[in-house]
């Protein structure tokens, strides 16, 4: 009888120990999963943050069929535009052609993104003067085409630093939207619109 009771006690203790071990394993597993998930989120956030330090946006009427091109020259002389989409620490995300590349026909259905915008991302700082030009590659609409050019800081909350508007009337017009000086600490200053051609045909 005593022996049976001892056996029952030992079995009960084994069960408790096994349950405890199982619980600890489960706890450690969940804890590790939470750490891994947290690390992955941190990496994702870091990637988003490091995608760019500044963006230059160029917008014109979304219904317009005009093809405006963006040119950005960094202090090292690197020039980004539709034929050279990545140079130095800058890249142009796409060449917007007006309405031509805003639609896609998929199985007879039209998918449209009516947007006229070009964006140049500055991923790292080259200290010195940046020049931003816009060029009317193809003036297909009647009347003037106002174009808005902005410099936006992407670190933390997006912050518009500078904005200018230029107006085009004809094919092949080129205008300096603005220049600015970027310092190593990320500060931007000396904004001005002193003209300087950047299109290959003019330099
Ligand atoms: Ca374009
Ligand atoms: Ca477009």
Automatic annotation (TrEMBL):
Organism of derivation: Candidatus Harrisonbacteria bacterium RIFCSPLOWO2_02_FULL_41_13b
Cited Gene3D superfamilies: 2.60.120.380
The name this protein goes by in its record: DUF2135 domain-containing protein
Transmembrane segments: 15-36
Record's keyword terms, sorted: Membrane, Transmembrane, Transmembrane helix
Record's keyword annotation contains Transmembrane helix: yes
């Amino acid at each position: 009888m005593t022996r049976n009771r001892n056996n029952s006690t030992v079995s009960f203790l084994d069960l408790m120990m096994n349950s405890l071990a199982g619980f600890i394993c489960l706890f450690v597993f969940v804890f590790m999963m939470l750490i891994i998930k947290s690390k992955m989120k941190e990496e994702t956030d870091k990637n988003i943050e490091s995608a760019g330090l500044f963006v230059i946006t160029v917008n014109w009427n979304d219904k317009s069929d005009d093809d405006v091109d963006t040119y950005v020259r960094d202090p090292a002389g690197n020039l980004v535009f539709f034929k050279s989409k990545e140079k130095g620490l800058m890249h142009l995300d796409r060449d917007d052609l007006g309405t031509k590349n805003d639609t896609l026909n998929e199985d007879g259905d039209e998918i449209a993104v009516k947007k006229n915008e070009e964006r140049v991302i500055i991923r790292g700082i080259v200290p010195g003067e940046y020049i931003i030009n816009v060029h009317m590659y193809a003036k297909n609409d009647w009347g003037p085409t106002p174009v808005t050019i902005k410099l936006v800081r992407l670190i933390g909350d997006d912050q518009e630093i500078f904005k200018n508007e230029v107006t085009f009337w004809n094919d092949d017009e080129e205008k300096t939207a603005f220049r600015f000086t970027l310092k190593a600490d990320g500060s931007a200053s000396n904004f001005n619109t002193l003209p300087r051609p950047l299109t290959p045909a003019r330099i």
